[in-house]
Amino acid sequence: MDSIAQQMMRNPVFSRVYEQLWRPVFTRLFSLGGTGTADVDRALTAYLSRPGDRLVLDVACGPGNYTRRFAENLTGDGRCVGIDFSPTMLSQAARTNQSRRSSYVRADAHAIPFSDNTFDVVTCLAALYLIPDPLPVVDELLRVTRPGGEVVIFTSVRTELSALPGVRQVAGFSGYHIFDRHEIVDRLRADGAEHVEQTITGQGQYVFATKPS
Ligand SMILES: C[S@@+](CC[C@H](N)C(=O)[O-])C[C@H]1O[C@@H](n2cnc3c(N)ncnc32)[C@H](O)[C@@H]1O
Questions:
Q1: Ligand 1 contact, 22 CB (< 6 A)
Q2: pLDDT at 1
């Protein structure tokens, strides 16, 4: 059975309010006990929105809030493709975040419908913690990244606050997974990724990695 979190992602009302209401609040909540999730988010968005002829894949794109921004300054044949398995999120993406260089595909992150070594950049933001079996998705992110390309992940991380029993119980009950500090970076390294860098901001972690050329 789907978790509460997974059911929310398929709810049309939640999909409509996600970008303007839920995501900004959630980004701030991730700063609890530390600082700067919003700052890192801004820097990351600026970096991934820079001009260039790139193929970008935004896995678990939700309503396309990042997909459109990653697409808008691309040049040449550059495109950003968002994939998500929620029809309501993709309808919202089509309504509000469609642009000339973005497109959306319904797919499960466990079986990304693209060939190996395709994308210059693959992102998976604010989603791995909702996925019941998340580590094979990390393998998929790297599989579709081209040699020399980048993988960027934003997800949860275990901290003193999130390890408190009440927080753990609510998270477990709602289907929100809290990752051990080394889980994501170890998986990427085991998959052969290079330059794996982790930045922890409060309750969240940003992980950058490169696929060897
Ligand atoms: C919280 S939203 C994140 C949206 C956007 N990436 C962001 O950072 O704001 C999480 C998304 O992950 C999607 N998702 C969860 N499990 C998935 C899976 N197995 N395959 C594809 N998408 C999935 C949900 O449908 C939802 O749209």
A1: no
A2: 64
